[in-house]
Design brief:
Shape of chain A: globular
Structural class of chain A: alpha/beta
CATH class of one domain in chain A: Alpha Beta
Strand order of the largest sheet of chain A: 6-7-8-3-9-10
Largest sheet of chain B: 2 strands, antiparallel
Distance between the termini of chain A: 36 Å
Helix content of chain B: over 70%
Order of helices and strands of chain B: HHHHEEEHHHHEHHH
Radius of gyration of chain B: 19 Å
Strand content of chain A: 25-35%
Order of helices and strands of chain A: EEEHEEHEHHHHEHEHEEHH
CATH architecture of one domain in chain A: 3-Layer(aba) Sandwich
Number of helices of chain B: 11
Largest sheet of chain A: 6 strands, mixed
Oligomer: heterodimer
Shape of chain B: globular
Number of strands of chain A: 10
CATH superfamily of one domain in chain A: P-loop containing nucleotide triphosphate hydrolases
Distance between the termini of chain B: 44 Å
Number of strands of chain B: 4
Strand content of chain B: under 5%
CATH topology of one domain in chain A: Rossmann fold
Structural class of chain B: mainly alpha
Largest interface: A-B, 24 and 17 residues
Chain lengths: ~240, ~300
Protein backbone atom coordinates (compact mmCIF):
# COMPACT_ATOMS: atom_id res chain seq x y z
CA UNK A 1 0.00 0.00 0.00
CA UNK A 2 1.22 3.49 -0.74
CA UNK A 3 2.26 5.89 1.98
CA UNK A 4 0.68 8.89 0.30
CA UNK A 5 -2.33 8.51 -1.91
CA UNK A 6 -3.97 11.50 -3.56
CA UNK A 7 -7.36 11.25 -5.29
CA UNK A 8 -9.02 14.04 -7.25
CA UNK A 9 -7.02 16.82 -5.59
CA UNK A 10 -8.16 20.31 -6.56
CA UNK A 11 -6.59 23.54 -5.35
CA UNK A 12 -7.93 26.99 -6.20
CA UNK A 13 -6.85 30.49 -5.27
CA UNK A 14 -9.49 33.18 -5.55
CA UNK A 15 -11.30 31.56 -8.47
CA UNK A 16 -8.18 30.42 -10.29
CA UNK A 17 -7.98 26.64 -10.46
CA UNK A 18 -4.29 25.82 -9.95
CA UNK A 19 -4.76 22.05 -9.60
CA UNK A 20 -7.64 20.44 -11.50
CA UNK A 21 -8.27 17.12 -9.84
CA UNK A 22 -5.14 14.98 -9.91
CA UNK A 23 -4.35 11.45 -8.69
CA UNK A 24 -0.94 10.22 -7.62
CA UNK A 25 0.76 7.86 -5.20
CA UNK A 26 4.03 7.71 -3.30
CA UNK A 27 5.05 4.35 -1.84
CA UNK A 28 7.16 3.90 1.29
CA UNK A 29 10.87 4.38 0.52
CA UNK A 30 10.30 5.82 -2.94
CA UNK A 31 11.68 9.01 -4.45
CA UNK A 32 8.97 10.37 -6.73
CA UNK A 33 9.17 13.61 -8.65
CA UNK A 34 6.56 15.96 -10.00
CA UNK A 35 7.95 17.87 -12.96
CA UNK A 36 6.48 20.52 -15.19
CA UNK A 37 6.80 24.10 -16.32
CA UNK A 38 6.44 27.16 -14.13
CA UNK A 39 2.78 27.58 -13.15
CA UNK A 40 1.80 23.99 -13.88
CA UNK A 41 0.43 23.60 -10.33
CA UNK A 42 3.30 21.66 -8.75
CA UNK A 43 3.78 23.90 -5.72
CA UNK A 44 0.03 24.18 -5.26
CA UNK A 45 -0.15 20.40 -5.14
CA UNK A 46 2.35 20.31 -2.27
CA UNK A 47 0.48 23.11 -0.50
CA UNK A 48 -2.73 21.17 -0.96
CA UNK A 49 -1.19 18.08 0.62
CA UNK A 50 0.10 20.11 3.58
CA UNK A 51 -3.22 21.91 4.08
CA UNK A 52 -1.72 25.32 3.32
CA UNK A 53 -4.18 25.90 0.49
CA UNK A 54 -7.81 24.83 0.86
CA UNK A 55 -7.81 21.56 -1.03
CA UNK A 56 -10.74 19.56 -2.38
CA UNK A 57 -10.47 15.85 -2.93
CA UNK A 58 -8.90 13.13 -0.89
CA UNK A 59 -5.39 13.03 0.55
CA UNK A 60 -4.58 9.84 2.45
CA UNK A 61 -1.36 9.44 4.39
CA UNK A 62 -0.78 6.03 5.99
CA UNK A 63 -4.55 5.70 6.20
CA UNK A 64 -5.16 9.17 7.73
CA UNK A 65 -7.30 11.71 5.88
CA UNK A 66 -5.07 14.78 5.67
CA UNK A 67 -7.53 17.01 3.83
CA UNK A 68 -9.57 17.43 7.03
CA UNK A 69 -6.59 18.52 9.16
CA UNK A 70 -4.88 21.85 9.86
CA UNK A 71 -1.28 22.20 8.69
CA UNK A 72 0.34 21.80 12.11
CA UNK A 73 -1.52 18.53 12.68
CA UNK A 74 -0.38 17.27 9.27
CA UNK A 75 3.20 18.14 10.20
CA UNK A 76 2.79 16.19 13.44
CA UNK A 77 1.87 13.08 11.42
CA UNK A 78 5.35 13.11 9.88
CA UNK A 79 5.12 15.15 6.69
CA UNK A 80 7.78 17.81 6.26
CA UNK A 81 7.66 20.37 3.47
CA UNK A 82 10.74 22.33 2.47
CA UNK A 83 8.92 25.25 0.86
CA UNK A 84 9.82 27.06 -2.31
CA UNK A 85 12.20 29.86 -1.36
CA UNK A 86 13.37 27.73 1.59
CA UNK A 87 11.37 29.51 4.33
CA UNK A 88 14.11 29.60 6.90
CA UNK A 89 13.66 31.82 9.97
CA UNK A 90 16.18 34.54 9.13
CA UNK A 91 16.22 36.14 12.57
CA UNK A 92 16.70 32.84 14.38
CA UNK A 93 20.13 31.26 14.60
CA UNK A 94 21.03 28.17 12.58
CA UNK A 95 20.77 26.06 15.74
CA UNK A 96 17.38 27.55 16.62
CA UNK A 97 16.11 26.82 13.11
CA UNK A 98 17.12 23.18 13.56
CA UNK A 99 15.41 23.15 16.97
CA UNK A 100 12.23 24.36 15.30
CA UNK A 101 12.46 21.40 12.95
CA UNK A 102 12.26 19.12 15.98
CA UNK A 103 9.39 21.12 17.50
CA UNK A 104 6.97 18.22 17.60
CA UNK A 105 9.41 15.78 19.20
CA UNK A 106 9.81 15.02 22.88
CA UNK A 107 12.72 12.54 22.77
CA UNK A 108 15.63 14.77 23.78
CA UNK A 109 18.23 12.06 23.27
CA UNK A 110 17.01 11.27 19.76
CA UNK A 111 16.90 14.95 18.86
CA UNK A 112 20.49 15.39 20.06
CA UNK A 113 21.59 12.42 17.95
CA UNK A 114 19.79 13.76 14.89
CA UNK A 115 21.34 17.16 15.45
CA UNK A 116 24.85 15.70 15.41
CA UNK A 117 23.93 13.77 12.28
CA UNK A 118 22.63 16.93 10.60
CA UNK A 119 25.88 18.71 11.40
CA UNK A 120 27.80 15.72 10.00
CA UNK A 121 25.74 15.79 6.81
CA UNK A 122 26.12 19.60 6.52
CA UNK A 123 29.44 20.63 8.11
CA UNK A 124 28.85 24.20 6.96
CA UNK A 125 25.85 24.44 9.26
CA UNK A 126 27.93 23.23 12.20
CA UNK A 127 30.43 26.02 11.58
CA UNK A 128 27.63 28.58 11.54
CA UNK A 129 25.31 27.20 14.20
CA UNK A 130 25.35 30.41 16.28
CA UNK A 131 24.87 32.70 13.30
CA UNK A 132 21.53 34.24 12.29
CA UNK A 133 20.15 32.11 9.46
CA UNK A 134 19.40 35.22 7.39
CA UNK A 135 23.15 35.80 6.98
CA UNK A 136 23.71 32.45 5.22
CA UNK A 137 24.19 32.19 1.46
CA UNK A 138 21.37 30.82 -0.68
CA UNK A 139 22.89 27.36 -0.87
CA UNK A 140 23.53 27.24 2.86
CA UNK A 141 19.95 28.31 3.48
CA UNK A 142 18.71 25.47 1.28
CA UNK A 143 20.88 23.04 3.25
CA UNK A 144 19.49 24.45 6.48
CA UNK A 145 15.93 24.10 5.22
CA UNK A 146 16.50 20.45 4.31
CA UNK A 147 18.36 19.73 7.55
CA UNK A 148 15.58 21.40 9.53
CA UNK A 149 12.94 19.25 7.82
CA UNK A 150 14.95 16.11 8.60
CA UNK A 151 15.10 17.10 12.30
CA UNK A 152 11.44 16.13 12.53
CA UNK A 153 12.28 12.58 11.39
CA UNK A 154 9.68 12.86 8.64
CA UNK A 155 8.06 9.78 7.14
CA UNK A 156 7.56 11.81 3.98
CA UNK A 157 9.79 14.66 2.87
CA UNK A 158 8.31 17.11 0.37
CA UNK A 159 10.83 19.26 -1.48
CA UNK A 160 9.66 22.27 -3.48
CA UNK A 161 12.16 23.42 -6.13
CA UNK A 162 15.31 22.81 -4.11
CA UNK A 163 17.51 23.95 -7.03
CA UNK A 164 15.84 27.30 -7.48
CA UNK A 165 18.14 30.32 -7.53
CA UNK A 166 21.28 28.36 -6.76
CA UNK A 167 24.62 28.27 -8.57
CA UNK A 168 25.17 25.08 -10.66
CA UNK A 169 27.81 23.71 -8.30
CA UNK A 170 25.52 24.20 -5.31
CA UNK A 171 22.65 22.55 -7.21
CA UNK A 172 24.83 19.45 -7.75
CA UNK A 173 25.65 19.41 -4.06
CA UNK A 174 22.02 19.70 -3.00
CA UNK A 175 21.04 16.88 -5.35
CA UNK A 176 23.81 14.64 -4.05
CA UNK A 177 22.40 15.26 -0.60
CA UNK A 178 18.86 14.47 -1.71
CA UNK A 179 20.04 11.19 -3.23
CA UNK A 180 21.90 10.37 -0.01
CA UNK A 181 18.80 11.07 2.10
CA UNK A 182 16.74 8.83 -0.18
CA UNK A 183 19.31 6.03 0.14
CA UNK A 184 18.86 6.18 3.91
CA UNK A 185 15.25 5.19 3.33
CA UNK A 186 13.42 8.52 3.65
CA UNK A 187 10.43 8.70 1.32
CA UNK A 188 10.62 11.83 -0.85
CA UNK A 189 8.21 13.69 -3.08
CA UNK A 190 10.23 16.14 -5.15
CA UNK A 191 8.84 19.04 -7.14
CA UNK A 192 11.22 20.47 -9.69
CA UNK A 193 11.29 22.59 -12.84
CA UNK A 194 14.70 21.24 -13.69
CA UNK A 195 13.39 17.94 -15.08
CA UNK A 196 16.82 16.67 -16.05
CA UNK A 197 18.06 16.71 -12.49
CA UNK A 198 14.85 15.43 -10.94
CA UNK A 199 14.52 12.46 -13.31
CA UNK A 200 18.11 11.45 -12.63
CA UNK A 201 17.55 10.93 -8.87
CA UNK A 202 13.93 9.72 -8.94
CA UNK A 203 12.46 6.26 -9.38
CA UNK A 204 9.10 7.42 -10.67
CA UNK A 205 7.82 10.68 -12.08
CA UNK A 206 4.63 12.54 -12.87
CA UNK A 207 4.50 15.30 -15.47
CA UNK A 208 2.15 18.19 -14.72
CA UNK A 209 0.72 20.64 -17.21
CA UNK A 210 -1.80 23.40 -16.44
CA UNK A 211 -3.03 21.80 -13.26
CA UNK A 212 -3.33 18.24 -14.54
CA UNK A 213 -1.07 15.20 -14.72
CA UNK A 214 -0.38 14.41 -18.35
CA UNK A 215 2.22 11.64 -18.11
CA UNK A 216 3.56 9.28 -15.49
CA UNK A 217 5.91 6.35 -15.26
CA UNK A 218 9.38 5.20 -14.31
CA UNK A 219 11.82 8.09 -14.28
CA UNK A 220 14.16 6.38 -16.71
CA UNK A 221 11.32 5.79 -19.21
CA UNK A 222 10.18 9.40 -19.00
CA UNK A 223 13.74 10.63 -19.40
CA UNK A 224 13.92 8.84 -22.76
CA UNK A 225 10.36 9.72 -23.81
CA UNK A 226 10.53 11.90 -26.91
CA UNK A 227 7.61 14.08 -25.79
CA UNK A 228 9.19 14.76 -22.40
CA UNK A 229 12.58 15.35 -23.97
CA UNK A 230 11.11 17.91 -26.33
CA UNK A 231 9.05 19.72 -23.71
CA UNK A 232 11.22 19.62 -20.59
CA UNK A 233 14.70 18.43 -21.34
CA UNK A 234 15.52 20.95 -24.00
CA UNK A 235 15.93 18.57 -26.94
CA UNK B 1 17.06 68.00 47.33
CA UNK B 2 18.57 67.25 43.98
CA UNK B 3 15.83 67.74 41.38
CA UNK B 4 17.66 65.91 38.62
CA UNK B 5 18.22 62.72 40.64
CA UNK B 6 14.70 62.91 42.02
CA UNK B 7 13.11 63.21 38.59
CA UNK B 8 15.38 60.47 37.26
CA UNK B 9 14.10 58.13 39.98
CA UNK B 10 10.48 59.12 39.38
CA UNK B 11 11.00 58.64 35.67
CA UNK B 12 12.52 55.20 36.09
CA UNK B 13 9.58 54.08 38.22
CA UNK B 14 7.00 55.39 35.78
CA UNK B 15 9.06 54.17 32.84
CA UNK B 16 9.29 50.63 34.13
CA UNK B 17 5.48 50.55 34.27
CA UNK B 18 5.26 51.93 30.73
CA UNK B 19 7.74 49.26 29.66
CA UNK B 20 5.55 46.48 31.09
CA UNK B 21 2.49 47.72 29.20
CA UNK B 22 4.54 48.39 26.07
CA UNK B 23 5.62 44.73 26.02
CA UNK B 24 2.02 43.68 25.45
CA UNK B 25 1.69 45.98 22.45
CA UNK B 26 4.98 44.96 20.93
CA UNK B 27 4.54 41.18 21.36
CA UNK B 28 1.15 41.20 19.65
CA UNK B 29 2.38 43.53 16.92
CA UNK B 30 5.42 41.32 16.38
CA UNK B 31 3.23 38.31 15.63
CA UNK B 32 0.07 39.74 14.07
CA UNK B 33 1.12 43.23 12.96
CA UNK B 34 -1.94 44.34 14.86
CA UNK B 35 -2.01 47.34 17.17
CA UNK B 36 -4.12 45.97 19.99
CA UNK B 37 -5.71 49.20 21.17
CA UNK B 38 -7.65 47.31 23.82
CA UNK B 39 -4.44 46.55 25.70
CA UNK B 40 -4.60 49.78 27.72
CA UNK B 41 -8.11 48.83 28.82
CA UNK B 42 -6.92 45.38 29.88
CA UNK B 43 -4.47 47.21 32.15
CA UNK B 44 -7.31 49.30 33.54
CA UNK B 45 -9.48 46.21 34.16
CA UNK B 46 -6.54 44.69 36.04
CA UNK B 47 -6.39 47.69 38.35
CA UNK B 48 -10.16 47.76 38.86
CA UNK B 49 -10.50 44.05 39.60
CA UNK B 50 -7.55 44.18 41.99
CA UNK B 51 -9.03 47.18 43.82
CA UNK B 52 -12.37 45.43 44.17
CA UNK B 53 -10.72 42.34 45.62
CA UNK B 54 -8.57 44.52 47.89
CA UNK B 55 -11.72 46.23 49.17
CA UNK B 56 -13.41 42.89 49.87
CA UNK B 57 -10.31 41.47 51.58
CA UNK B 58 -10.00 44.53 53.82
CA UNK B 59 -13.60 44.08 54.86
CA UNK B 60 -13.36 40.34 55.47
CA UNK B 61 -9.90 40.21 57.04
CA UNK B 62 -9.02 43.63 58.48
CA UNK B 63 -5.91 42.27 60.21
CA UNK B 64 -4.27 40.99 57.05
CA UNK B 65 -1.03 42.89 56.29
CA UNK B 66 -1.31 45.37 53.40
CA UNK B 67 1.19 43.61 51.18
CA UNK B 68 -0.81 40.37 51.46
CA UNK B 69 -4.03 42.19 50.62
CA UNK B 70 -2.52 43.67 47.44
CA UNK B 71 -1.06 40.30 46.59
CA UNK B 72 -4.54 38.82 46.94
CA UNK B 73 -5.84 41.46 44.54
CA UNK B 74 -3.16 40.55 42.01
CA UNK B 75 -3.93 36.88 42.38
CA UNK B 76 -7.45 37.49 41.05
CA UNK B 77 -6.65 40.36 38.66
CA UNK B 78 -3.98 38.45 36.73
CA UNK B 79 -6.11 35.46 35.70
CA UNK B 80 -9.07 37.78 35.09
CA UNK B 81 -7.04 39.81 32.59
CA UNK B 82 -5.60 36.66 31.02
CA UNK B 83 -9.10 35.32 30.45
CA UNK B 84 -10.24 38.68 29.13
CA UNK B 85 -7.39 38.90 26.59
CA UNK B 86 -7.93 35.29 25.55
CA UNK B 87 -11.58 36.08 24.88
CA UNK B 88 -10.86 39.34 23.06
CA UNK B 89 -8.46 37.61 20.68
CA UNK B 90 -10.79 34.72 20.04
CA UNK B 91 -13.95 36.77 19.52
CA UNK B 92 -12.73 40.06 18.06
CA UNK B 93 -9.46 39.37 16.24
CA UNK B 94 -9.31 35.71 15.19
CA UNK B 95 -12.29 35.85 12.81
CA UNK B 96 -10.55 38.77 11.07
CA UNK B 97 -7.17 37.08 10.74
CA UNK B 98 -7.42 37.05 6.93
CA UNK B 99 -9.25 40.36 6.59
CA UNK B 100 -7.55 43.54 5.37
CA UNK B 101 -5.40 44.97 8.13
CA UNK B 102 -7.59 47.98 8.75
CA UNK B 103 -10.50 45.75 9.86
CA UNK B 104 -8.94 44.30 13.05
CA UNK B 105 -7.51 47.73 13.86
CA UNK B 106 -11.01 49.23 13.89
CA UNK B 107 -12.24 46.23 15.91
CA UNK B 108 -9.47 46.88 18.42
CA UNK B 109 -10.66 50.46 18.89
CA UNK B 110 -14.20 49.12 19.27
CA UNK B 111 -13.17 46.61 21.92
CA UNK B 112 -11.34 49.36 23.74
CA UNK B 113 -14.47 51.55 23.85
CA UNK B 114 -16.66 48.63 24.92
CA UNK B 115 -14.32 47.80 27.80
CA UNK B 116 -14.23 51.42 28.93
CA UNK B 117 -18.00 51.57 29.00
CA UNK B 118 -18.34 48.23 30.73
CA UNK B 119 -15.91 49.41 33.38
CA UNK B 120 -17.88 52.61 33.79
CA UNK B 121 -21.07 50.59 34.32
CA UNK B 122 -19.45 48.29 36.86
CA UNK B 123 -17.22 50.71 38.78
CA UNK B 124 -18.85 54.06 38.09
CA UNK B 125 -17.48 57.35 36.79
CA UNK B 126 -15.74 58.45 39.95
CA UNK B 127 -12.14 57.77 40.89
CA UNK B 128 -11.60 54.62 42.93
CA UNK B 129 -8.92 55.23 45.51
CA UNK B 130 -6.17 52.80 46.34
CA UNK B 131 -6.27 52.32 50.12
CA UNK B 132 -3.07 53.38 51.93
CA UNK B 133 -2.17 49.90 53.09
CA UNK B 134 1.27 49.46 51.55
CA UNK B 135 4.47 50.17 53.50
CA UNK B 136 5.32 53.85 53.17
CA UNK B 137 8.99 53.98 54.12
CA UNK B 138 11.20 56.60 52.51
CA UNK B 139 14.90 56.41 51.84
CA UNK B 140 17.55 58.96 50.93
CA UNK B 141 19.67 58.21 47.90
CA UNK B 142 22.09 60.68 46.28
CA UNK B 143 20.18 63.58 47.69
CA UNK B 144 16.79 62.35 46.50
CA UNK B 145 13.91 60.43 48.06
CA UNK B 146 12.78 56.98 47.05
CA UNK B 147 9.81 55.23 48.63
CA UNK B 148 9.35 51.56 49.42
CA UNK B 149 6.64 51.43 46.78
CA UNK B 150 8.96 52.88 44.12
CA UNK B 151 11.67 50.35 44.94
CA UNK B 152 9.10 47.59 44.85
CA UNK B 153 7.74 48.68 41.47
CA UNK B 154 11.17 48.92 39.87
CA UNK B 155 12.40 45.60 41.24
CA UNK B 156 9.23 43.74 40.27
CA UNK B 157 9.19 45.34 36.80
CA UNK B 158 12.77 44.41 36.06
CA UNK B 159 12.22 40.86 37.32
CA UNK B 160 9.19 40.52 35.07
CA UNK B 161 11.12 41.85 32.10
CA UNK B 162 13.99 39.46 32.77
CA UNK B 163 11.51 36.60 33.10
CA UNK B 164 9.82 37.48 29.83
CA UNK B 165 13.18 37.78 28.12
CA UNK B 166 14.11 34.28 29.29
CA UNK B 167 10.73 32.94 28.18
CA UNK B 168 11.09 34.38 24.68
CA UNK B 169 14.77 33.55 24.19
CA UNK B 170 15.18 30.27 26.00
CA UNK B 171 11.96 28.26 25.97
CA UNK B 172 10.20 26.18 23.37
CA UNK B 173 7.16 28.47 23.49
CA UNK B 174 9.38 31.53 23.08
CA UNK B 175 11.08 30.01 20.06
CA UNK B 176 7.70 29.18 18.57
CA UNK B 177 6.59 32.78 19.19
CA UNK B 178 9.64 34.17 17.41
CA UNK B 179 9.24 31.70 14.54
CA UNK B 180 5.55 32.57 14.19
CA UNK B 181 6.41 36.27 14.15
CA UNK B 182 8.71 35.67 11.18
CA UNK B 183 6.49 33.36 9.17
CA UNK B 184 3.18 31.98 10.33
CA UNK B 185 3.08 29.56 7.40
CA UNK B 186 6.50 28.03 7.98
CA UNK B 187 5.88 27.83 11.73
CA UNK B 188 2.75 25.78 10.93
CA UNK B 189 4.87 23.53 8.73
CA UNK B 190 7.12 22.87 11.75
CA UNK B 191 4.06 21.62 13.63
CA UNK B 192 3.46 24.79 15.63
CA UNK B 193 -0.19 25.34 16.49
CA UNK B 194 -0.10 29.00 15.53
CA UNK B 195 -3.53 29.79 16.99
CA UNK B 196 -2.34 28.56 20.36
CA UNK B 197 0.89 30.57 20.14
CA UNK B 198 -1.10 33.72 19.32
CA UNK B 199 -3.43 33.08 22.26
CA UNK B 200 -0.42 32.57 24.53
CA UNK B 201 1.04 35.87 23.35
CA UNK B 202 -2.13 37.75 24.24
CA UNK B 203 -2.47 35.99 27.58
CA UNK B 204 1.14 36.61 28.65
CA UNK B 205 0.87 40.28 27.67
CA UNK B 206 -2.35 40.58 29.67
CA UNK B 207 -0.83 39.01 32.79
CA UNK B 208 1.94 41.59 32.71
CA UNK B 209 -0.59 44.35 32.00
CA UNK B 210 -2.63 43.36 35.07
CA UNK B 211 0.42 43.77 37.26
CA UNK B 212 1.25 47.09 35.61
CA UNK B 213 -2.32 48.28 36.20
CA UNK B 214 -2.08 47.53 39.91
CA UNK B 215 1.32 49.29 40.03
CA UNK B 216 -0.05 52.44 38.39
CA UNK B 217 -3.04 52.63 40.68
CA UNK B 218 -0.88 52.01 43.75
CA UNK B 219 1.59 54.65 42.59
CA UNK B 220 -0.96 57.39 41.91
CA UNK B 221 -3.26 56.15 44.69
CA UNK B 222 -6.27 55.85 42.39
CA UNK B 223 -7.87 54.12 39.44
CA UNK B 224 -10.47 55.22 36.94
CA UNK B 225 -12.40 53.64 34.08
CA UNK B 226 -10.60 56.00 31.67
CA UNK B 227 -7.06 55.44 32.99
CA UNK B 228 -6.25 52.85 30.33
CA UNK B 229 -6.49 55.39 27.52
CA UNK B 230 -3.55 57.64 28.35
CA UNK B 231 -1.52 54.78 29.82
CA UNK B 232 -2.11 52.69 26.70
CA UNK B 233 -1.26 55.60 24.41
CA UNK B 234 2.00 56.24 26.23
CA UNK B 235 2.94 52.58 26.36
CA UNK B 236 2.18 52.23 22.67
CA UNK B 237 4.35 55.29 22.02
CA UNK B 238 7.08 53.70 24.10
CA UNK B 239 6.85 50.55 21.98
CA UNK B 240 7.12 52.64 18.80
CA UNK B 241 9.98 54.63 20.29
CA UNK B 242 11.92 51.44 20.96
CA UNK B 243 10.97 49.88 17.62
CA UNK B 244 7.60 48.13 17.61
CA UNK B 245 7.79 44.36 17.41
CA UNK B 246 11.09 44.40 19.28
CA UNK B 247 10.91 43.22 22.90
CA UNK B 248 14.12 44.86 24.10
CA UNK B 249 12.94 47.98 22.29
CA UNK B 250 9.72 48.09 24.29
CA UNK B 251 11.66 47.86 27.55
CA UNK B 252 14.11 50.59 26.48
CA UNK B 253 11.35 52.77 25.01
CA UNK B 254 9.24 52.53 28.18
CA UNK B 255 12.11 53.47 30.47
CA UNK B 256 13.20 56.31 28.20
CA UNK B 257 9.70 57.72 27.87
CA UNK B 258 9.27 57.66 31.64
CA UNK B 259 12.56 59.43 32.24
CA UNK B 260 11.98 62.00 29.48
CA UNK B 261 8.55 62.73 30.86
CA UNK B 262 9.78 63.13 34.43
CA UNK B 263 12.71 65.31 33.46
CA UNK B 264 10.42 67.32 31.20
CA UNK B 265 8.01 67.84 34.05
CA UNK B 266 10.86 68.89 36.31
CA UNK B 267 12.47 71.36 33.98
CA UNK B 268 9.80 72.57 31.58
CA UNK B 269 9.07 75.56 33.83
CA UNK B 270 12.73 76.62 33.82
CA UNK B 271 13.13 76.07 30.10
CA UNK B 272 10.10 78.14 29.13
CA UNK B 273 10.67 80.78 31.80
CA UNK B 274 7.53 79.70 33.69
CA UNK B 275 5.32 79.92 30.59
CA UNK B 276 4.53 76.15 30.64
CA UNK B 277 4.07 74.17 33.85
CA UNK B 278 4.69 70.55 34.77
CA UNK B 279 1.19 69.55 33.65
CA UNK B 280 2.59 69.81 30.12
CA UNK B 281 4.70 66.72 30.75
CA UNK B 282 2.60 64.64 28.32
CA UNK B 283 3.24 67.14 25.54
CA UNK B 284 6.92 66.95 26.28
CA UNK B 285 6.99 63.15 26.04
CA UNK B 286 5.14 63.08 22.73
CA UNK B 287 7.31 65.88 21.36
CA UNK B 288 10.41 63.75 21.98
CA UNK B 289 8.66 60.77 20.43
CA UNK B 290 7.98 62.75 17.26
CA UNK B 291 11.58 63.95 17.16
CA UNK B 292 12.95 60.42 17.44
CA UNK B 293 10.60 59.11 14.76
CA UNK B 294 11.51 61.89 12.35
CA UNK B 295 15.15 60.87 12.50
CA UNK B 296 14.69 57.16 13.06
CA UNK B 297 11.27 56.04 11.77
CA UNK B 298 11.81 52.40 12.73
CA UNK B 299 12.42 53.30 16.39
CA UNK B 300 15.59 52.98 18.42
CA UNK B 301 16.08 49.21 18.14
CA UNK B 302 13.71 48.48 15.25
CA UNK B 303 14.74 46.98 11.95
CA UNK B 304 12.81 46.92 8.67
CA UNK B 305 9.66 47.94 10.47
CA UNK B 306 9.23 51.03 8.35
CA UNK B 307 8.48 48.91 5.31
CA UNK B 308 5.84 46.92 7.19
CA UNK B 309 4.06 49.65 9.11
Amino acid sequence: MSLLSVRGLKVAYGGIQAVRGIDFEVAEGELVCLIGANGAGKSSTLKGVMGLAHPHGEVLFAGERLHKLPTHAIACLGLALVPEGRGIFGRLTVAENLDMGAYTRNDKVGVQADLSRAYELFPRLAERRGQLAGTLSGGEQQMLAIARALMGRPRLLLLDEPSMGLAPLMVMKIYETIAAIAREGVTILLVEQNANLALRVSQRAYVMESGAITLSGAASDLASDSQVRAAYLGD
Amino acid sequence: MDIFTQQLINGLVLGSIYALVALGYTMVYGILELINFAHGEVTMIGAMVALTVIGVLMGVAPDLPGLMVVFGGLLIAIPACMALAFGIEKIAYRPLRRAPRLAPLITAIGVSIILQNLAMLVWGRQYVSFPPILPRGQHEILGAHITDLQIFIVVLSFSLMAGLWLLVERTRLGRAMRATAQSREVAELMGVNVDRVISATFVIGAAIAAIAGVMVSAYYGLAHYYMGFMLGLKAFSAAVLGGIGNIAGAMLGGLLLGVIEALGAGYIGDITGGFLGSHYQDVFAFFVLILVLVFRPSGLLGERVASRA
